[in-house]
User: Fold this.
Amino acid sequence: MQRNGAVPPWVQLQNELEDALDAFRRVMRESWVKSATRGISSRLPSPSSLSSNEVGSSVPSLESIQAYRDQEWEKREAAYHNAAIKEINSLVRKYNGMAPYAVRRAVYTVEGERERMYGEAARDVWENLKQRGKEGLLGASTWERGYKESEAVRGGGLAGEAGWSIGELLRELVDRIFGRISKKG
Assistant:
C-alpha cells in the first residue's frame, strides 16, 4: 500500500481537516490584522502632532496589541466564524470516528481560535502600525488616511499597495456614519 501511495482513509481526512483549519485561520488572521490596524491606528495621536522622536514611541507594545479587542469586528465576523468552526468540527467528528484513539482530536471553538489568533497576529498588527507611522498615517481620520494613501498611489505606487482600497475606505466611512447614527438613536 505504501509503495503505491495509498494511505488509510483517516489520514486523508486528517489532511483535509488540516487544510480547512489552516484556511480558516489564515482568513480570520488577515481580517483581524486589517481591522485591528485600523482600529488602533485611529486611536493614536497623529504623527504631525508629535515630535520626531515621539513618532516611533506612539506605536503600542505587543502586549497591548494582544489585549486589544474589537466587539464590532467580532459581531461582523461571527456568522462566518461560527459556520467555519461548525464545518471544521464536522470534519473532526468524522475523523475521530475513523482514526485510532491515540490521534483523535478535540473539537474547536470560535473563542479558542480567536484567542489563539489574537496572540499570533499581534506582531503583524504591530508591524503594520509601525509602517503607518513611517507613512504619517497613524492617528489620521478616515478622510486623511484616504487622501494621504491616494497621494501615495498617485506618486507611483500600485493601487492597494498603500493599505486601503476604495471599497475599504467607503466601508469604513459607512460603518462610522451608521455607527454614530445608531449610537445617537
Summary: The CA atoms of residues 45 and 139 lie 5 Å apart. Confidence is low (pLDDT under 50) at residues 48-56, 153-162.
